[in-house]
Amino acid sequence: MASGPYLHGHHASVLRSHSWRTVENSCPHLIPHLSKSSLKILDVGCGPGTISVDLATRIPQGSILAIDPSAEVIHKARKHAEEKGVTNVRFEVGDIFNWEIIEGVEEGGFDIVHAHQVLQHLQDPLSAMKEMKKLTRRGGIVAVRDCDYSAMSHYPPHQGMDKWLDLYRSVAKSIKCDPDIGKRLHAIAIQAGFSRGDIDASVSAWTFSTPDERAWWCGLWAERSTKSDYTARVLESGLGTEQDLHQIARTWREMEGKEDGWFAVINGEVIAHNKS
């Protein structure tokens, strides 16, 4: 089994978002489980590696193996680790469905298997969760976090923002992905074989409200709407036109300029304890 098309692609506007991510702002649910300095962690769908490298600094006697299907972003991740002087992290091209070919990956081989904003982009997130469970040692955890687009919120009201959200969710569903998966991560964990009592479910948010935050968030989405792989996916789907996308990009720029502008990204999280 292989992962399908990645809706966002790896345009600079996408990597700018991914490179902003840290343990603090992107996996707060995992922090209480990093008390041991010698953990062995698998980071699935690591992107440019900022979370992976941050995790590695928190477990100096441990190790991180981080994987991503894109050779381009793995190259960037290795460079990031080198620039930070972090040596207990290893980046390899690969995905959760073909872990057998990755050196150092074996069943029950990790204390923590982590995935951030990954399941929403998979056509078969349940199988991915099952594989993550398989790779976690008994007594270890699977830690997953994904957003719920249906719960995203903005102010002030703007029809253009409503159009963006409707279009994005429709395009994601057209390639059999679930943009709203954050609300049902615990349900997927149950289906994957975890007992409900062994699953800690939580929620956290990214909020973009200050002028700098709005400029960054709205700017990258304006660019992503017309220049990334997402643009091609919209046009291929027939659900939107170039005119629609340029209008949406202008909407993002308008939101950026609103002094009272506010945008919230709601993220569902689970810590699933592997006791089997």
From TrEMBL:
InterPro entries: Methyltranfer_dom, SAM-dependent_MTases_sf. SUPFAM superfamilies: S-adenosyl-L-methionine-dependent methyltransferases (SSF53335). Residues 36-175 form the Methyltransferase domain. Pfam families: Methyltransf_31. PANTHER family: TRANS-ACONITATE 2-METHYLTRANSFERASE-RELATED. Gene3D superfamilies: Vaccinia Virus protein VP39 (3.40.50.150). This is Methyltransferase domain-containing protein. The lineage of its organism: Eukaryota, Fungi, Dikarya, Ascomycota, Pezizomycotina. It comes from Didymosphaeria variabile.
